[in-house]
């Protein structure tokens, strides 16, 4: 199932998307998408609604240096344990919403990532049970103010600006995330090209590790890390991240 959050003629709702291309239909879900969804009976062509961020998490937990080649391109070693940092919920935007690049922060980079969406309140989940607490998977762009990341040491400011976590276009609930193709393009030029099988710390391990630190709530996001090939983005450009079996997340960039 593809779960989305949409703006439609009557307001905002969660929905399931059925079909592809011009035939795609959006079926409204009552209340929330967790558990067995209840449908209201309302439906629209996908072209008649606007896709929003598919979920509004209480927190975004990101994993740094989780692809060996990405760690190497910045001269770092892969950490023995997952390296965690947080992005505020206010960083989240949806498909086609602009990434707003603040003035005076220097280089700002895109980072294409597979995102895990948690489906229930959990704490101390063993890796063997991780799949049972995951609602599904979506695409993320862990936008980063690279100069601030280097100068601050801490990553909160560099990763925490409003609009610095595009998510979407929807949550796919029925894929195996172990070996998916991930690509990122800037203005149509290929920048990242990797597979999720290259993750150093795999998804079950990440769920166990993160839930051992903090309680995870329905809708919380774990960003699994970005592969090599990250680079700067400027106002007027467009970033598209594609993950096999999910789709493509595209966002323009604006200088502010």
UniProtKB/TrEMBL annotation:
<dbReference type="Pfam" id="PF10370">
    <property type="entry name" value="Rv2993c-like_N"/>
</dbReference>
<dbReference type="GO" id="GO:0016787">
    <property type="term" value="F:hydrolase activity"/>
</dbReference>
<dbReference type="InterPro" id="IPR018833">
    <property type="entry name" value="Rv2993c-like_N"/>
</dbReference>
<feature type="domain" description="Rv2993c-like N-terminal">
    <location>
        <begin position="1"/>
        <end position="54"/>
    </location>
</feature>
<protein>
    <submittedName>
        <fullName>Fumarylacetoacetate hydrolase family protein</fullName>
    </submittedName>
</protein>
<keyword id="KW-0479">Metal-binding</keyword>
<dbReference type="InterPro" id="IPR011234">
    <property type="entry name" value="Fumarylacetoacetase-like_C"/>
</dbReference>
<keyword id="KW-0378">Hydrolase</keyword>
<feature type="domain" description="Fumarylacetoacetase-like C-terminal">
    <location>
        <begin position="59"/>
        <end position="253"/>
    </location>
</feature>
<dbReference type="InterPro" id="IPR036663">
    <property type="entry name" value="Fumarylacetoacetase_C_sf"/>
</dbReference>
<dbReference type="Pfam" id="PF01557">
    <property type="entry name" value="FAA_hydrolase"/>
</dbReference>
């Amino acid at each position: 199932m593809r779960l989305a959050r949409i703006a439609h003629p009557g307001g905002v709702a969660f929905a399931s998307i059925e079909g592809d291309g011009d035939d795609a239909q959006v079926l409204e879900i009552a209340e929330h998408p967790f558990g067995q969804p209840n449908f209201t009976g309302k439906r629209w062509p996908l072209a008649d609604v606007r896709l929003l961020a598919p979920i509004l998490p209480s927190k975004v937990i990101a994993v740094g240096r989780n692809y060996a080649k990405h760690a190497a391109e910045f001269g770092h070693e892969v950490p023995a344990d997952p390296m965690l940092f947080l992005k505020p919920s206010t960083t989240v935007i949806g498909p086609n919403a602009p990434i707003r690049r603040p003035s005076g922060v220097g280089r700002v980079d895109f980072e294409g990532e597979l995102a895990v969406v948690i489906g229930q309140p959990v704490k101390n989940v063993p890796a063997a049970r991780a799949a049972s607490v995951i609602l599904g998977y979506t695409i993320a762009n862990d936008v980063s103010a690279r100069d601030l990341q280097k100068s601050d040491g801490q990553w909160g400011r560099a990763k925490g600006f409003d609009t610095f976590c595009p998510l979407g276009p929807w949550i796919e609930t029925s894929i195996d995330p172990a070996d998916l193709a991930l690509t990122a393009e800037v203005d149509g030029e290929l920048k990242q090209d990797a597979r999720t099988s290259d993750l150093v710390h795999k998804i079950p391990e990440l769920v166990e590790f993160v839930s051992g630190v903090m309680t995870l709530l329905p809708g919380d996001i774990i960003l699994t890390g970005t592969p090599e090939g990250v680079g700067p983005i400027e106002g007027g450009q467009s970033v598209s991240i594609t993950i096999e079996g999910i789709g493509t997340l595209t966002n323009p960039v604006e200088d502010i």
